[in-house]
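One chain given next:
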Amino acid sequence: MFLGGEVLLYFLGVVAVAKWPYFAGDYVVGREEAAFAVVTCGSHD
């Protein structure tokens, strides 16, 4: 479980670093689009 958590955090970190310009763009363009992206990804965090 610990290893899985570490892998998940690492993956999320890599994605965040790689995609932050897109996330920032979505935030600037509109919260609605960002919310739609979150729902589409199935994230509830």
Summary: The chain has one domain: 2-41. Helices lie at 2-29, 31-41. The chain has a mean pLDDT of 69.
